[in-house]
Amino acid sequence: MRLRVGVVGGGLVAQAMHLHYLKHQTERFDLVALADPSATVCESLKQLYNLEAAYADYLQLLDGTKLDAIVICSPAQTHAEVTLAALDRGLHVFVEKPMCITLADADRIVEARDRTGKVVQVGYMKRHDPAWQYMLEHLPDSAESLRYLRVVVHDPEFEPFFGPGEIVRGDDIPANVIDAGREQMQAQVTEAVGAASPAIVTAFEGSFLGSLVHDVNLVHGLLERMGEPLPAEVIGGDWWNEGRAVTGYVRLANGSRWDSAWIQLLDVFDYRETVAFYFAEEVHTLSFPSPWLKQSPAVYEVSRRGESARLAQVFESYEESFSRELAHFHDCVVNGVECRTPPEQARLDIAVLTQMFLKAA
Predict the structure, then answer these.
(1) Residue 66 Rama label (left phi>0; alpha psi -120 to 50; beta)
(2) For 278-287, what is each residue's pLDDT tens digit?
(3) pLDDT tens column, 226-275
(4) Of 29, 249, 266, 274, whose Cβ has the fewest other Cβ atoms within 10 Å?
(5) Residue by residue, what is the 3-state secondary structure of the chain?
(6) What is the dihedral of CA 26, 24, 39, 173, to 10 degrees?
(7) What is the pLDDT of residues 147-172, one digit of tens each?
(8) Can you say whether residue 338 is alpha, beta or left, with left for phi > 0 and alpha for psi between -120 and 50 degrees?
(9) Per-residue b/e over 186-205, b at no fewer than 16 CB within 10 Å?
(10) In 3D, which of 56, 52, 55 has the Cα closest to residue 66?
(11) Rounded to an integer, what distance in angstroms lies between the CA atom of residue 35 and that of residue 264?
């Protein structure tokens, strides 16, 4: 069964990943419509992907086109309202991370998903990477011998990975739409953490919820596999450089510590993302390339002691996780497969990241 799909938001992740894979998975999806407030973006992507329609507003998309599902790639402050509107219209939802900004909205989404019986899948593509899944299968059965867990990401964002003109950008978004979006963001961040200066918005929504959320989510999945009680105790957090660098610290049940850091380095064209689990007798490491590099390998390595030697086992995968997560979404909708990244999981991530931010205050 092919799903008729509309996309809300025609920005970077939509153009670089989701539109491409939706269009190429022709056995699963019929990509029919787009909503974006930029007329330039709408017209360009409508022609490029031969869409039936393109709209300035997501409500026009939901009410103007026959759909089975939507993929939400709009700004984070719109995710909750679009998800809820789509569920109320009987549509299945794939929503990019962060699922929303406030825990109250997370609860509303869970309730609406339960009430409507529709699929809500959150866009955590790393849980669909074969290297992450291989690590999940090969970790120890318990976290009891875990001594330390460390996540470090430094990120040049998108500039090194796209040439001029590859991403269509419209400078014609109406001023009232921009102002309303800014007010909506400030209101939600204030509800979540009590204030919403520009630096706070950058730190909380952009860095914690927008970036570090990926690693918190994948670590949660690995800890859950080993029977670690979640949520673990958040013991600290910090942010600096106007919110473009953040850290968070967690205490696990056996007393060991999980430290995470995300640092934006726009002038260093070098993306690094490493997740390392240090056990008493072995080290498990997962390294990711920039998400904008298609078919670049994620690498999982296990290091152990051998007889007078270090023994290392390496697993690399070139399969594209953005493609795999959309295939999984189709499988959930059509075949009733259990969703791998449901909204309850996203709520846990948001709660932990919110505590990390508040600990820095």
Answers:
(1) beta
(2) 999 999 999 9
(3) 999 999 999 999 999 999 999 999 999 999 999 999 999 999 999 999 99
(4) 266
(5) CCEEEEEECCCHHHHHHHHHHHHHCCCCEEEEEEECCCHHHHHHHHHHCCCCEEECCHHHHHHHCCCCEEEECCCHHHHHHHHHHHHHCCCEEEEECCCCCCHHHHHHHHHHHHHHCCCEEEECHHHHCHHHHHHHHHCCCCCCCEEEEEEEEEECCCHHHCCCCCCCCCCCCCHHHHHHHHHHHHHHHHHHHCCCCHHHHHHHHHHHHHHHHHHHHHHHHHHHHCCCCCCCEEEEEEEEHHHCEEEEEEECCCCCEEEEEEEECCCCCCCEEEEEEEECCEEEEEEECCCCCCCCCEEEEEEEEECCEEEEEEEEECCCHHHHHHHHHHHHHHHCCCCCCCHHHHHHHHHHHHHHHHHCC
(6) 120
(7) 999 999 999 999 999 998 899 999 99
(8) beta
(9) bebbbebbeebeeebbbbbb
(10) 52
(11) 29
What per-residue confidence (pLDDT) applies to 306? 84
Please state whether 117 falls in left (phi above 0), alpha (psi between -120 and 50) or beta: left
Rounded to the nearest 5°, which phi and psi values hold at 294? -75, 145
C-alpha 57/C-alpha 181 separation (Å) is 13
State how far the Cα of 147 lies from the Cα of 282, in Å rounded to an integer: 10
User: By the 8 A CB rule, do 272 and 163 touch?
Assistant: no
pLDDT attached to residue 328: 98
Q: In this predicted structure, what is the pLDDT of residue 308?
A: 84
Residue identified by tokens 């001594």 is: 147
State the amino acid at position 240 in one-letter form. W
In degrees, to the nearest 5, what angle opens at C-alpha 124 toward C-alphas 118 and 288?
160
Burial of 289 (C-beta count, 10 Å sphere; 0-12/13-18/19+): middle
Q: Which amino acid is at 48?
A: L
Read off the amino acid at residue 286. L
